[in-house]
Design brief:
It is a single chain. The protein has 9 helices and 8 strands. The protein has 268 residues and is of the alpha+beta class. The chain is globular and about 65 Å long. The protein starts with 6 loop residues before the first helix and ends with a helix. 15% of the residues are buried.
Length: 268
């Protein structure tokens, strides 16, 4: 005698499958829409660069960049700058991931004051960020705060492994488990600073919590942006309000494991 599932269970499975398909389609549609919006913004930006339409370039800058800088001052500065002249561009690819975006730009340029100088073709991944629903180009001064490459150019499996290591590292810091923290530090640092020496130093801060905003892996190098809160490790000021900070950490893979890379000066 064959066993048959009750009708209500079959119906439940069917509805669940349909819901999952609809959800996936909705996510894909939103992703496609964001790519189209970013492509349109990037086209406007680069057309303005080629035309030297600095007023339009200013309009496409983020509120952070515009703060304290009027359009008139920006245009005047760009007209005097005369560093690079963009001759043409091609928007080769666009990718988005949540509030981050990347556009593959292939452009020709030459020094503005050397019209006889042969133009150079340059290929870049330009980074964008979404603020209150609009896409804005990330200025060079803030590029290090963002993943440099789109997800398809990175290593998702390694990024998952790195994410676990970064999270465990910060949990150890919050628990003041300095022996475990030491084990996560890169081999070059540990060869220069013995564990006994590292452990006898009093920590300056008490780490309270953390959030990993992103991780990025390219080859055997990794980076992670961490938002965290801390307070000074001083019992006389325990009532002080915790401080919120963020940092981009460097990690390195050695013998199959990820380690927090410590700057050379910190090991001296």
């Amino acid at each position: 005698m064959k066993y048959r599932l009750p009708v209500f269970i079959l119906l439940f499975i069917f509805i669940g499958t349909i819901t999952a398909v609809i959800y996936a389609s909705d996510v894909q549609a939103k992703q496609t829409d964001e790519v189209a919006r970013l492509r349109a913004r990037a086209d406007l930006y680069w057309k303005a660069q080629v035309k030297r339409d600095w007023g339009s370039v200013y309009d496409l800058l983020s509120p952070v960049e515009k703060a304290g800088l009027s359009k008139k001052r920006f245009v005047k500065f760009k007209e005097k700058e005369r560093a690079i002249r963009y001759l043409s561009y091609r928007l080769a690819d666009v990718e988005t991931s949540e509030r981050y975006g990347w556009t593959r730009i292939i452009y020709k340029a030459q020094p503005a004051d050397l019209p006889d100088y042969p133009p150079r073709t340059i290929k870049i991944w330009q980074i964008w960020e979404k603020i209150e629903g609009n896409w804005y180009p990330v200025p060079p001064s803030r590029r290090e705060d963002f993943p440099q490459l789109p997800p398809k150019m990175r290593q998702p499996k390694e990024e998952r492994a790195l994410l676990k290591r970064v999270d465990a590292f910060w949990r150890a810091k919050e628990e003041q488990d300095w022996q475990s923290v030491y084990e996560y530090l890169d081999p070059d640092f540990k060869s220069a600073v013995p564990a006994a020496e590292f452990l006898q130093k009093k920590a300056m801060f008490l780490y309270l919590d953390h959030h990993i905003e992103w991780v990025e892996v390219v080859d055997n190098r990794g980076r992670a942006k961490v938002l965290y809160t801390y307070r000074l490790n001083d019992p006389t000021i325990r009532k002080a309000r915790p401080v919120e900070e963020n940092m981009v950490e460097s990690w390195i893979k050695v013998n199959g494991h990820w380690y927090r890379q410590v700057p050379e000066e910190a090991a001296e």
